[in-house]
Known about the structure:
Layout: H1 2-16, H2 45-82, H3 85-130, H4 141-144, H5 152-168, E1 171-172, E2 175-176, H6 187-209, H7 212-215, H8 220-251, H9 254-257
Antiparallel strand pairs: 1-2
Amino acid sequence: MRGSCSGRTYGSSMSETNGMLPPPPPVTPSSWTTDQFMRKETLSPALSVWLQVVLYVAAASSALSGIGILMAASAAERFFESDSYRNLDDWVAAEDFYATFLGLLYLVSIAVFVLLIVFLFRAHKACATIWSGPRKWSRGWTVGAWFIPFANAIITPMVWVETDRISSARRTDGQVAEDWRQLPINKQIVCWWVLYAVAYFGLLVGFGGMDTEEFGYSDYPNFARFTAVAAFLMGAALVLAALSVRRIGRALSPSAIG
């Protein structure tokens, strides 16, 4: 009797489900959290730190180059006045001094250029976490703007300004307020680009005038001092660039975005 009852119960339950097991209970989406499925983009603190390091190294190299150029200008003047071989040796030593740090500046500038592109690209991507609305400059401009002749001197800083505005705007529940476009332009970015442009062309003109084979020796000290000023301006521009990177890096860090 027990067997027949058990068999009848099993058979009736199988017939009611057409030979299939009952489906599992549904999972309610209300138990899910947004953070489990949406990965927040942030700016790597290591990238920010390394970019600041190479910018400061480049700034120091530019400043030391300027000091060496001033030393070369003074040694050249002493040589012209006294025609002493000792002063000539000082002149040659001063030129070797600034040439060493100028070469270091060129090498570090390659790393600066690459890291600036990566940093701006990652910063633009991180800004999408705190602002999903429309923007004037798309992510492609963070890379492409650097390679457009002449226009890169205008477009690239505009991309930086927009990224800086979004990253530094006030946030409500992790999202940037609508009035971020009305924020003032960060003066560090403007001074950075203006000083860099002036210093860059100043170095071109100054080193051209220091070419003794083409212009002779009489104007060498004056052009050398002009070049030294341009080198100091270049160093100041690179320091301001490092401060701008620090500002954006902190605003878009994992701890800031949350």
